[in-house]
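Quick question, first post here. What does this chain look like in 3D?
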Amino acid sequence: LMIILYVSFVSCELPNEPKDENKWVSISNSTLSNMTVQEIAVSSHSIQNVYLGTYKGVFKSTSAGDSWSLYTNGLTNKDIRALAIDPKDPTIVYAGSWGKGVYKSLDGGVNWTAIGDENQPPLVNSLVATNNGSSTTLWSATENGVYKSADKKTWTKNYSNSKVLTIAASPHDDNMLFVGIRYKGNFRTTNLGDSWQAVNSGVYATSDGIAAANSFAFNYTDNDNITFS
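> Answer (accepted):
Ran it through. Tokens below.
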């Protein structure tokens, strides 16, 4: 969904392009040739600022994909699987790696500092940053549960020892988050992780387990309309 939305944004920037909803516009150049893109994050403050998580580090575009720069300074592990932009301050960006936990940038992705500790598993699948009006909380979906950090230095476990594929926050309710748990299906919290409830009615299931989301998509005009893939 993030890719679909981003292509739509690009179409808005290119008035001469034919308005064909079935057409995809490539935004890759020689910099991204043969690159595996593992995550995309677009700033809600400016659609010109786009981040890509790759196995070579973080690429950033300040021109809606017309050009890209690779930033790896401070990344002791360049295999970036997850990205999150602070909802209040777009210069603060978080990157989740596959091997060294989470990194933080205070300058829009140019420089990075590790913010993992011994309490947080190093294999990160997904990140989301939420803000309740006074402070930002960072959530990390890992191969060993969900962890959260209010100070962006230390982590506490917020969900059991499970392989968490993804985590997403509702755009309509600051207290509501969703996770996809491998083989266990999907769960929701309405109290910022104090408790979680299964939300698997109608979800495909077999004797091996329940289908879990790899990603969630929210309808910004209808808070009851949620899609996962």
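The chain is about 5% helix and 40% strand.
The radius of gyration is 17 Å.
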